[in-house]
Amino acid sequence: MNTPGQTRTPTADADEARLHDVANAHEPLPWGRWLAWAIALGVGANLAWIIARNPAFEWHVVTRWFSARSIVNGLMVTLGLTVVSMLIGVLLGLGLAIARLSESLLARQLAGLYIWIFRGTPLLVQLIFWYNLSTLFPQLSIGVPFGPTFGTWNTNELITPLTAAIAGLALNEAAYMAEIIRAGLISVDSRQRETAMAFGMTRARAMRRIVIPQAMRAIVPPTGNQLISMIKATSLVSVIAMGDLLYSVQAVYNRTFEVIPLLMVAVLWYLLVTSMLNVGQSAIERYYARGEGIKATRKRAASAFASVPPNGVARSVGGQQR
């Protein structure tokens, strides 16, 4: 605003008029986006109508078997395998990631060898290998190398379809989680850990209290993807006669020959479970992104203060003090 006795120049009037126009400007109507939405909704509705009206899907069969006891039992096996294998995989992956970042050359090399083997071979081959471990080692024993043996077990009694499935899924997942966790840990500035240790924290406590909470923002999204991949990867255990969701569906359509509708039952259950996991992943990501929102707010505030003229008087736009 003008103070009494202050004259306005033509340049100042032009600047104020231009700022007033910018403040009252309206975004043009997004006709292109509306057209794209209309086309996408039209194509989607047409596809849904074709699928719903196609008699080959036999939706009445899908409805009948969707909540059948055998199918639900297979779903519970799938969920149980996912939870147990993912927990073991994350814990082993954390240890491998720390080993990869350690100062010990032996630990780094051993962790790298593990990751190289389990990431370089297909999961299906690993599952079959674990299931047929008794052909290579009829007995498993624990003892001192080239020394006394403390215990011996029959491999066929230990390696059941359940233990083979957990071993194959968990050990394979650990290799991928090791690289995800390692990438998250190295994304945190190393000077923060050094500062924490300079204040008396141990390396382990600095990792637990300083580094890992910040690294979670980089770890959570790919871990969520791995969890969803694990849900789908459990379908491979059907080849070793593990009664998961896909195996239960196959057992039904082998009797009824209703292949397509039973496969649709499995597809719908997988989509339902992964959709719920996506919602949980989004909530966790928002939780760990809270600090970034505060940083962005502070940065915008700093920019606003920096834009104030040196005399401390803000310019007038539309009759309001800015």
UniProtKB/TrEMBL annotation:
User: Where on the tree of life does the source sit, at the highest rank?
Assistant: Bacteria
Limits of the ABC transmembrane type-1 domain: 75-278
Pfam family of this protein, just one? BPD_transp_1
Species lineage = Bacteria, Pseudomonadati, Pseudomonadota, Betaproteobacteria, Burkholderiales
Could you list the residue ranges that cross the membrane?
34-52, 72-99, 111-131, 233-253, 259-280
Q: What is this protein called?
A: Glutamate/aspartate import permease protein GltK
Q: Which InterPro entries match?
A: AA_ABC_transptr_permease_3TM, ArtM/GltK/GlnP/TcyL/YhdX-like, MetI-like, MetI-like_sf
Q: Which family does it belong to?
A: Belongs to the binding-protein-dependent transport system permease family. HisMQ subfamily.
The record's subcellular location field reads: Cell inner membrane; Cell membrane
Q: What does this protein do?
A: Part of the ABC transporter complex GltIJKL involved in glutamate and aspartate uptake. Probably responsible for the translocation of the substrate across the membrane.
Name the GO terms of the biological process aspect. amino acid transport
Q: What is its main location?
A: membrane
Q: Which organism is it from?
A: Pandoraea terrae
Q: How does it assemble?
A: The complex is composed of two ATP-binding proteins (GltL), two transmembrane proteins (GltJ and GltK) and a solute-binding protein (GltI).
* Topology with respect to the bilayer: Multi-pass membrane protein
> Where does it sit, as one GO cellular component term?
ATP-binding cassette (ABC) transporter complex
- Record keywords: Amino-acid transport, Cell membrane, Membrane, Transmembrane, Transmembrane helix, Transport
What GO MF annotations does this protein's record show?
A: transmembrane transporter activity
